[in-house]
Design brief:
Length: 718
């Protein structure tokens, strides 16, 4: 025996029959069990309803219950999809052009039709009944537009009608004064029934008795809505949040440590001299405001990356707890770059705390970052890293198969800096002397002051402190040696003065011993006189100027000079240092060590001043630069422009922008490629910021806050 399925449903007529729903917009919700419904505090001109279900779809219906013209049907009159639905107007009537009824402001035709399809069983989607229903959605709105609408009575009019002693209003809601409750002002019968109720009469009697007891001068308490208090609170909170976020941005750009906000002197100053300064939270309360700033920065980056080419710069380091941290930076390459000669500043987009450091974790972090920022893989042009084995393996095994237009560049500045370390190995006494002077001066402010005073007493013009040698700042060691060579004659007297006046220490004794070595001064002078070409090459390779077309020649010239120096010098240590540096650079200047060597050789052809000295064969340049076939016809035109003398510009990008009308496709590629960086200086700087931000004093910061704050610090320099 087949049982007939019982269907429970509510029609529009059922809703219309309820008097309390007259001239109201009723929201009907059809949802599965355990559905959650939340109604947050109302905002100005907005009521928000949040519905969440984990067990199935949610259907929402808006039913406008009209009292007048009951013969006119709306789309809710059609009943449910299980009934035989008929059109309210002819099917060939033109769809409406403009929404006019209240529900149309909240729900569009497309949303309603989509909701209807979702509610229909899959096999019935194309049924005639559904087609009629969908047509009814369109046509019934036209009927609503033609329906005359009567102006609804206002709460103020009801107060005038029933008396100010019985009712009052705040402008939008009618309140019974005696009962201190809101009353529906739309229907007169509702108000009459309220007045005639026993509860109202009892409250009215108590109100008269209280008035007689308190006397005529007592103010009558009247109920009001919570709208205005909520609005005032919201305005105040928004203002406070704005001040807090602006103050936080200022701290980021000024490198002002947040933990200093807790100092009593800072709190007193803010409260006393800054209007609203006491509302600025302490450091531990700042972190609740960080997600808003992080989202704002992410949206800025997404807008900046959209439609542009990208260069990816990445590197890994360890934090103070020896945990691996992986930073990913993007360089935005625009077809219309600014006129200045600087390359686009890299932007920090992701800081990932890696559990393990290998090619798999590196690849996963990079691919995830591309997905998060919606970067089209064909728009990634270069991948700049150091030459560590896991970076090379990540490129060879994974990334090169995904980023088909990309070239892997091993940071040339890093390579030259590593090769330059052979000078430190060859001149060990000089290296030890530089380290001792750093130990003496860097962490001793009083000693630095005495050193400057001593130099001034020795008639040194505009005395300065020696540069601080830092391993990750690749030129600082050579610059420090040049400083010491210049001031060497003054060091013996200063060291003896310190030993006499401040007491003898291990550092001072070692410095005195080194200053007694005859070769030290000669070695300092030799390095200072012969490191100029190496320092200049490093400056070019780590520069933020447009230098990619100069890189290949710079490295070749440096190798040639080092080999010449090694064969011509009388200093044995200098000869060994120069030859070792040249040998290392030659080892890294091959395809296996520098994957981009052919690309860097070919990109010189985009410099009009070099095109004659290199090669003009387009078939050689095209595959290395990954130029499209659209450029085939424009290459001879470019050669002709160069031959005609159209190269009176220093910056090759300015040349390509000037000839854009003649070679539009080739100019587009050239402008983008000439903006590329060949170094990872940006990521090294981000690590320096990380060391400042996340030290042993800030262990309470979560990884998410560290990553977000580092992004804000790095991407928003002063």
């Amino acid at each position: 025996m087949i049982k007939k399925m019982q269907i429970a449903y509510v029609t529009y007529q059922d809703i219309h029959s309820v008097q309390a729903f007259q001239e109201q917009i009723v929201i009907a919700i059809k949802a599965p069990e355990e559905t959650k419904l939340e109604v947050p505090a109302p905002k100005e001109n907005c009521i928000e309803v949040r519905i969440k279900s984990t067990k199935g779809p949610i259907d929402v219906y808006l039913c406008e219950v009209e009292q007048e013209n009951p013969g006119v049907k709306t789309f809710e009159d059609m009943g449910t999809l299980t009934s035989e639905t008929k059109s309210a107007v002819p099917l060939d009537e033109e769809p409406r052009e403009k929404a006019s009824s209240a529900w149309e402001a909240a729900v569009t035709d497309s949303q309603l039709e989509q909701g209807a399809v979702e509610q229909t069983p899959r096999e019935a989607v194309n049924s005639p009944t559904l087609e009629v229903f969908k047509k009814s959605l369109r046509t019934s709105h036209s009927s609503l537009e033609k329906m005359p609408r009567r102006a609804r009575v206002t709460p103020k009019e009801r107060v005038a009608q029933f008396g100010k002693d019985k009712f009052h209003t705040d402008g939008s809601v009618l309140f019974c004064t005696a009962c201190s409750k809101a009353v529906d002002h739309i229907r007169k019968q509702t108000i009459v029934e309220h007045i005639e109720s026993a509860k109202h009469k009892q409250n009215e009697k108590r109100q008269r008795e209280d008035a007689e007891t308190a006397g005529p001068s007592a103010a009558l308490k009247k109920q009001g809505t919570v709208t205005m208090p909520f609005q005032s609170s919201t305005v105040a909170k928004d203002c406070c949040d704005t001040v807090t976020l602006d103050f936080f941005r200022m701290c980021l750009k000024a490198d002002f440590p947040l933990h200093k906000m807790d100092l009593p002197v800072v709190r007193d100053f803010l409260s006393k001299h800054i209007k609203g300064g006491s509302a600025i939270p302490k450091s531990d309360q700042f972190y609740s405001h960080l997600p808003a700033l992080f989202e704002e920065e992410k949206q800025r980056l997404l807008n900046d990356f959209e439609g542009n080419f990208i260069a990816v710069i990445a590197d890994e380091t360890a934090d103070f707890q020896n945990r691996p941290v992986f930073n990913i930076l993007f360089q935005v390459l625009k077809v219309r770059p600014p006129k200045h000669a600087d390359i686009p500043a890299p932007q920090l987009v992701k800081t990932v705390c890696l559990g393990k450091v290998n090619h798999a974790t590196i690849s996963q972090a990079l691919i995830s970052c591309m997905v998060e920022f919606s970067i089209p893989l064909e728009r990634i042009l270069t991948f700049v890293t150091d030459s560590t084995s896991y970076m090379v393996k990540a490129w060879n095994d994974v990334l090169r198969n995904l980023w088909l237009n990309c070239v892997h560049i091993c940071c040339y500045a890093h390579i030259v800096a590593l090769a330059g370390n052979t000078w430190r190995d060859a001149f060990k006494q000089v290296d030890h002397f530089v380290a001792l002077m750093k130990s003496l001066l860097v962490n001793a402010p009083a000693c630095r002051a005495r050193f400057l005073r001593y130099l001034n007493e020795q008639s040194v013009d505009s005395p300065t402190l020696p540069p601080k040698p830092v391993v990750t700042r690749w030129n600082t060691w050579f610059n420090c040696v040049k400083y010491h060579a210049q001031h060497y004659q003054l060091y013996h007297g200063f060291v003896e003065y310190e030993r006499t006046e401040q007491g003898d220490t291990t550092v001072l004794r070692e410095l005195a011993s080194l200053l007694a070595v005859e070769d030290l001064h000669a070695d300092l002078k030799y390095i200072a006189e012969n490191c100029g070409r190496l320092v200049t090459a490093l400056n070019i390779l780590e520069s933020q100027k447009r230098q990619i077309h100069k890189v290949y020649n710079t490295v070749l010239d440096l190798i040639s000079w080092l080999e010449h120096l090694a064969s011509s010098t009388d200093n044995a240590k200098g000869s060994m240092a120069a030859q070792s540096t040249a040998d290392k650079l030659r080892q890294y200047n091959v395809k296996s060590k520098q994957p981009a060597i052919d690309f860097l050789r070919a990109v010189r052809a985009l410099d009009p001043k070099q095109i004659g000295a290199v090669y003009t064969d387009y078939e050689t340049v095209k595959p290395e630069l990954k130029l499209s076939s659209e450029c085939n016809m424009e290459w001879p035109v470019y050669l002709g422009l160069v031959k005609d003398g159209f190269i009176d510009v220093e910056d090759p990008i300015q040349f390509w922008m000037a000839v854009e009308d003649h070679v539009p496709k080739l100019a587009k590629y050239a402008v983008v490629l000439l903006q590329l960086t060949v170094n990872s200086v940006g990521v090294e700087k981000s690590f320096s910021k990380l060391g400042i931000l996340f030290s042993a004093q800030h262990q309470s910061l979560t990884e998410e806050n560290v990553a977000g704050m580092l992004q804000l610090y790095f991407n928003n320099p002063d």
